[in-house]
Amino acid sequence: MLRRNEDIVILAIETSCDETAAAVVVNGRDVRSNVISSQIDLHTLYGGVVPEIASRKHIERINQVILEAMQQAEADWDELDAIAVTYGPGLVGALLVGVAEAKAISYARKLPLIGVHHIEGHISANYIENKELEPPFLCLVVSGGHTHLVNVADYGVYEVLGRTRDDAAGEAFDKVARAIGLGYPGGPKIEKVSAKGNPHAVEFPRPRVTEDAYDFSFSGLKSAVLNYLNACKMKHVEVVQEDVAASFQRAVIDVLVGNAMLAAEQYQVKKFAIAGGVASNGALREAMADACRERGISFYHPSPVLCTDNAAMIGAAAYYEYRAGARSGWDLNAVPNLKLGER
Length: 343
Ligand code: KG4
Ligand code: ZN
Prior knowledge:
Elements: E1 9-14, E2 19-26, E3 30-38, H1 40-44, H2 51-72, E4 82-88, H3 92-109, E5 113-117, H4 118-129, E6 137-142, E7 147-154, E8 157-163, H5 169-179, H6 186-194, H7 219-234, H8 241-266, E9 271-275, H9 282-294, E10 298-300, H10 304-307, H11 312-323
Parallel strand pairs: 1-4, 4-5, 6-9, 9-10
Antiparallel strand pairs: 1-2, 2-3, 6-7, 7-8
Helix pairs in contact: 2-3, 4-11, 5-6, 5-7, 5-8, 6-8, 8-9
Bound molecules: 5'-O-[(R)-(carboxyoxy)(hydroxy)phosphoryl]adenosine and zinc ion.
C-alpha cells in the first residue's frame, strides 16, 4: 500500500445490524477499501432483521470480509495504525461479533483499539467525499434505528438537539412498506414506487412535537396510513400503492426538512449535512438541497453506499477519535443502547 510516514491507517469493522463490513481508511477521508456483505436477502424472507440470524451470519462472514478489505486496499498488517469497531448502538449479538474480532486482531497485532459510536460513524460518512467539510455544522441522522438532529460542534463533540419520540424515520418507511405490500427493506421500495405516484393524492398529517421543537414523532403518521388503508378496505375503494407511497414519503420529508430548517435558522448555521440509510432517499436529498439553497446554507450528503451501514464511515470517525487520543481497553463491550456523546 502507498503510505506516507505521517499517515494514519485504520482497519474499521462494522457489524451492528445486518451488514458485515470492513474498510481500510487513511487519514479519515481516504477510503482504500469498503467491503460490505449484506444479509438483506436472508432477512427479507422474514420481513425484517432476525437478530439471531444476523449474529450467526456475521460470524460466518467476518474473517472473509476483513481479508477482502485488506486485499483490496493492498494493505499489509504491519501498515495499520489502529483497529476500529462499532460497539453501539445496535443488536447486541451482532455488535459482539465485531467487538470480539477487533479485540482479537488488535491483541495479536499489538495495535490500539478504538470503539466507535455507530451514529458518529454515520455523521462522519460526510467527511469522506466532502474533503472541505469541517465542524461546526448541523446533521440530520435518519436511519432504521435513529432519527437525530445533531449539532456537530467539533470533531467528536456532539449535542443532540432533537430525536424521535417513537419510530425512527427508516422504521416508518419499513412499516408502511409492509402495510402496502412492498416488503422489506421498505425505504428503497417506497422511493421507487413513489416516483410513479402523486404525493398530493392523500393528505397525511405532518406531526410536530410542540414542547421540544426539534423532536420528531412518526408513529402517528404510520397509524394515519394504516387507518387510510383500513378505510379504503371498508369502503371497497381500491388502494393506489404508488399514491399512498408518494404521499407518505412527502409527509415524512416535510417533517424532516421542517425541523431541520427550524434548527438551521435558530442556530444560524452555514453548513447542513444528512446521514443514515434514509439519507440515500433522492426526494429527501432534493428537498433538503432546495431548502438549504433558499437560505444560503451549504448542503452535504454522502453517496448512497456511504449512507447505509458500512465500515468506511467507522474508519472516518475513528481517525478523529484516534487523533484526540481516544483508546479503548480490553474491557470494550457491546452497548446496544449507547447514547451519542456517552462513553
Ligand atoms: O443506516 P441504515 O443502513 O441502518 C441503521 O443504522 O438503521 O438504515 C437502514 C434504513 C432502513 O429503515 C431502510 O428502509 C432505510 O434506511 N432506507 C431508506 C432508503 N434506503 C434505505 N429509506 C428511504 N429511502 C431510501 N432510499
Ligand atoms: Zn446505521
